Amino acid sequence: MRDTRVTPARTRRAQRSAAIATALAAVAASFAWPAAALAEPDPGPQSGWQASETFTTSHLNPRDVAVSPGNDHLFVNYEDGDVVNVIDVATQAGVDRAVDGWGEPILTVPAPDGYRVLAAGTNDVYSLTPGTWTIASEAGPGVDAMTYSQHTGTVFSVDGGLQLSERNPLTGALERWAGLSNFSMAIAAHPSLPIVYTANLIEESVTAIALDAVEWGDICGCENASTMLDLPGSSPADIAISPDGSALYVLDDAGALFSIDTATFTLTDSRSLDGMFPSASLSVNPVTGEIVAADLLGDVFVIDPASLDVTDTVALSAGLWDTAISPDGTRIYVTNTWDSVISVLEHVAPAPDPATNVRATPGARQAAVLWGASATGSPTYTVTAAGSDQALCVTTATFCIITGLPVGPVQFVVTATTDTGSTPSQPSQAVTITAPAAPASVPMPTGGATIAFAGSQPASALFGQKVDVVATGFAPASFVDVSLHSSPVLLGSGQVGADGTATFQVTIPASGIEPGAHHLVASGFTAQGAPAAAVRQITLAAAPAPKPTPPAPNGGGSNTAADGNRLASTGSDADRGQPLWAAAILLAVGAAAVTAARLRRRA
Q1: What pairing do the DSSP bridges indicate for beta strands 450-453 and 466-472?
Q2: 503 pLDDT band (50/70/90 cuts)?
């Protein structure tokens, strides 16, 4: 019974195919394509989509192509039919599986154990199991187009232009059917709603079919479930939907491209592509949303989905038939039915734009290098000296401070790097790196920069004193030079910490400087790479004279023992200081007394 219903449609389909074949032959005869064009395809622009390789198929006249979820296999059918070719992407080696019929649509659908490949023959739908590539068939005459519905988890096909069929995604077996209201040759499913869309070749329209309202098993089952949108003057050849389901794209055989808002089912925009599009060559990049269409005359168009502007055109040989895009969005596969080849297009992103206006401010054994940002993305910048490949600084900012530079002239180059490449800038003007030295005069102070002595007296010090200085508001990891004015004297240098502060010890000169008011100066760079100076008025004074040491005592004895330890005192210093004449008087008195005593005894 189903054969009876679809036979008129199959006849019209055969007539259309014959007309297309005649048109193709006429076009082919009108062009003299150079043989070298196949071997050396135009690589296209230096950035954007371009042909990376072209390989010959194992059979003549490839038609429809599909790609595996892992981008490791292609599935191709041929105009002469009777085979589905499984091609290993890495080796380009092919495995053939026999089918009954000429080139018909091919579809990959998810499965619990990975995926399945459904391929339509003349009277059957074939299911291929990955790995073993075993093939099984189910009855399915006259399948013109197939699509997988993420919402229902099943496959929908248009058969013979006049029947909508729902199929088992693993086997392709027919589960239910309903008659279409229009003659359709292309189908797409909404990713999150129970709706499918068909492109109506004869009626110059597109139809939205609400699956919940379809009267399955009825020859007019889609009539009350369909909403039709007229596209006057068009002959829709293919249909595709955006990854989020918000937009529907319809391409007619003369190159008119339509964009339809699925929420309101209204036409929002249209563009005319220059070429012939008799086959179902429309694809949508699942990652970027870009629209891809192949022109029979040899151009592949990549189209911005928002504006419908052509963003890339890749010139290949005439005879293009179908396109398939890898699930990761990085490759476009294009079949050429005249040359029996498959071209692989890959997106080549441009190298980043260079950094601009590179300029340097020199300092003592260091320099601040600044530049204008690249106009491309968010690159990493590497600073080198001109003529050297040694990285002096790597940053994502637009300036850096480079320390440890040798004294002398230098130019700097900033190289912008992204995943797509590197681009060096023009070199900066030459600057001269100097040795550390005190500035000739007291500079103007920079807001936010300070200098002081550490401790309780931040503005006072003594000649010859070792004292810590604290400089704040300078660029982390840079160096700060501290000097003394009035007579310029470099006191020392220190490296700035992550908080913008440098603390280090210096020595105030012991001579050659007058006491009184002076300036303490810190010189370096701000955190933004600009020259910076901090200035503080200070007072320097001479150190006080040391107190004199008292003389050692002059007494007749010592309180120091022979072992060097001081003995305990047994009397006052006054007692030890009496003159010797007192002792002499006592001796004289004693001697007179003795003499008087002797005289009395003699008497």
Answers
A1: antiparallel
A2: very high
Q: How many CB atoms lie within 10 A of CB 472?
A: 19
Q: Write b or e for each residue in 176-193: b if 16 or more Cβ atoms lie within 10 A of its Cβ, otherwise e.
A: ebbbbbbbbbbbbbbbeb
Partners of 388 in the beta sheet? Answer: none
Tens digit of pLDDT for each residue in 326-363?
Answer: 999 999 999 999 999 999 999 888 889 999 999 999 99
Q: Report the number of secondary-structure helices (H) and strands (E) in the chain.
A: 4, 45
Task: Render pLDDT for 446-466 as a digit per residue (tens, 0 to 9).
Answer: 999 999 999 999 999 999 999
pLDDT digits (tens, 9 = 90+) for 278-316: 888 999 999 999 999 999 999 999 999 999 999 999 999
pTM of the model: 0.62
- Gap between the Cα atoms of 62 and 56, Å rounded: 10
- Provide mean pLDDT across the span 226-251: 94
Residue 141 confidence (pLDDT): 82
Widest distance between CA atoms in the chain: 194
Tell which residue, 2, 280, 322, 324, has the closest CA to residue 138.
Answer: 2
| Side-chain-side CA neighbours of residue 335 (13 Å) | 30
Neighbours of 319 (CB within 10 A): 24
Taking CA atoms, 99 is separated from 10, 120, 140, 231, in Å, by 18, 8, 13, 36
CB neighbours of 144 closer than 8 A, spacing ≥ 6?
A: 13, 104, 105, 157, 158, 159, 160, 161, 184, 185, 186
Q: How confident is the model at residue 555 (pLDDT cuts 50, 70, 90)?
A: low
CA neighbor of 476 nearest in space, from 391, 383, 368: 368
Q: What's the CA gap between 349 and 289, in Å, rounded? A: 17
* Ramachandran category for residue 172: left, alpha or beta (phi over 0 → left; psi -120 to 50 → alpha): left
Confidence of residue 101 (pLDDT cuts 50, 70, 90): confident
| Residue indicated by tokens 């003499």 | 595
pLDDT in tens, 357-386: 999 999 999 999 999 999 988 899 999 999
Which is nearest to 209 in space by CA: 173, 180, 248?
Answer: 180
- The DSSP bridge partners found for residue 74 are 67, 87
Q: Is the pLDDT of residue 60 over 80?
A: yes
Q: What is the residue type of 261? A: D
Separation of alpha carbons 435 and 364, rounded Å: 5
8 A C-beta contact, residue 266 and residue 290: no
Q: DSSP code of 223? A: G
Contact 210, 194 (CB under 8 A): yes
478-499 burial string, b = 16+ CB within 10 Å, else e?
bbbbbbbbeeebbbebbebeee
CA distances for 301 relative to 106, 283, 295, 417, angstroms: 22, 11, 8, 29
Alpha-carbon distance of 63 to 109, in angstroms, equals 19
